[in-house]
Amino acid sequence: MRKNCKLILVEGLCGTGKSTLAERLHFYLVQQGISSRFYDEGAKGHPTSLNWHAFFHEEEYKELLMRYPDSSSVIRSLAIRNTNYYLIPYREVKELNKLDALNTELKSRELCWTESPVAELSEFTSSIQRQWARFAESASNLEEVYVLEAVFFQHQIHDLLRHYQAENSYIEQHIQGIADQIASLHPVVIYLTQPNVREQQVWISSIRSKPNFATEQNIRFMENRKRIEIRLLDMLPFRSYTIENANLDWEEVFSNMVEVIG
User: Fold this and answer.
1) Potential cystine with 53: which of 1, 20, 87, 94 (Cβ 3.0-4.6 Å)?
2) Going by C-beta distance under 8 Å and a sequence separation of 6 or more, which residues neighbour residue 133?
3) 3-state secondary structure (DSSP) of residue 32
4) What is the pLDDT of residue 128?
């Protein structure tokens, strides 16, 4: 394992093997006697993902507390304040989930992976960058390696493109902002890819029974996302490696992953 590296980021489009191979890499590190933590994109307690976080401007937050006085102390204890807005992590919080009206409202105000964004573009990116900054500060004090899957590129570029229609230059600036926050962790980015996005999406659509993956609209979206991500790799202030899996040879890909972190 390379000296001082505390963060391994595994990225790529759907169907490149990110989740399976990232978790396998985590277990490999543990077997080598290296303390490691693995989080896939939707993991509970994820240190950088803001899934299951409801977004409220300050006045909206105050009104929420007034509408639910019996839950106000729990909400206050969970709330993350960022200047003039708040994030409320509510996943599997019994005191919040047991109230249907409150739980429905929190879900309707999700920051990420939502069809109806409630935050402005600058608020969305600021929230994410601050979360990465908090993570970097915490991780720098621990003797552990974090293996994170699909959260550096995919998790947010998806929303920036699909829901905010952000310009490429804005996306690049945002990712660079995160990269600057985590540079002290000496991260490594492993980008898994296959040569033909269309074939890849059709294949993953069939094995996951998700026909929307193979639509022309989604294929064009993924092709564009890949172009952006490949360009971003060259702009990062730390090491990145692209591993192509043209033959779906997962053992070879994993061996290459082990080699680049060694």
Assistant:
1) 87
2) 181
3) coil
4) 96
